Structures are given as structure tokens and as C-alpha cells.
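During the reporting period the student researcher (J.K.) took over the structure-prediction task from the postdoctoral fellow and processed the backlog of single-chain submissions. One of the processed entries is reproduced below for the supervisory committee.
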Amino acid sequence: MGAELFAWLVGLFLLVGGVCWYLLQFLRQDSHSHDEQYVWQRSVEK
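J.K. obtained the following C-alpha cells:
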């Protein structure tokens, strides 16, 4: 029972951690693009 619970918890934390990491990367890039276009008045290279 303990090993099964441990495996579920590790999987859950890996899943949540992966989603948070991808979300952080997306927000960092999206925020930088927004700042370049609207705050710094520079064009965004795509």
C-alpha cells in the first residue's frame, strides 16, 4: 500500500511540476513579446 501511494504521489508531482514549468516558459516568452511590442515599441521577430 505504501509503495503504491508513493508511486502515485511521485507521478502526480511530476505531472504538476511539468505543467507548471511549461506554463512558466510560456508566460515568460509571451510577456517578453508583449513588452517588446507595446512597452519598448520594437517589432517582434517571428
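The committee noted the following: The two ends are 51 Å apart (CA to CA).
J.K. will present the remaining backlog at the next meeting.
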